[in-house]
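[step 3/7] fold_predict: job queued, chain A
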Amino acid sequence: MTGQPIIIMDRVSKRFGETVLAVDNMSLTINEGDFVTFLGPSGCGKSTALKVISGLLPVTSGTITITPPTGETEQDLGFVFQDPTLMPWATAYQNVFLPLKLAGIKPDQAGPRVTEALKEVGLSKFADAYPRELSGGMKMRVSIARALVTRPRILLMDEPFAALDEMTRSKLNNDVTQLAKEHNLTVIFVTHSVFESVYLSTRVMIMAARPGRLAAEMSLETPWPRTEDWRTSAAFSAEAHRISEALKRTLDAEDIDH
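[step 4/7] structure written:
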């Protein structure tokens, strides 16, 4: 179940230089507990929208409001990038500890939290392993643990599984939705994959390019999080077809406009 609004984007635009309008007049309300995906082709502003929400990029115009927490929370946002961005000279444990270290939390206080974060992503036995010793999927798990160790309310994920094989990607899809449920996270997830968006989301935001803008919002009524059996069901196929058709209409409209 989703709750009260947690992120409100009001007529947000982001321009790079004089010529590139990456995000144009984007208005969107995301509620607590939503799992929202931004779906669309390359260059449609998905990642830029995510980065302006995070504060990594300033908006050119419009406003983004993140509502204050009602209870105690340590950090509003956690960010998982497309590349795991791990320090190669540091172990998995040290990589996960990094944000707590930067926050001034002492190693003895941080230890149980780092250990728990690694356990949650299934890497308890690899705490002392270096990135070069880990598979692509394991590196991404370290990156997710590093984002979760700060106990965020909102998790932003920028195509984190795009470079992984299909089996690893499916497993991580399951793990992320379970972690989101367990931690009561609000998640915004960027993807090119219709199937991934349908499996993960409570709402799919279809974006159009030139300039990047929100073209359609699609809600998915199937109970969330989903089970692996749902991937092979007729209901999943029907939802994927519905989202694909909406995406196709958006792309066809772009071709007409340009």
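[step 5/7] annotate
The longest helix spans residues 234-257.
The longest strand covers residues 5-16.
exit 0
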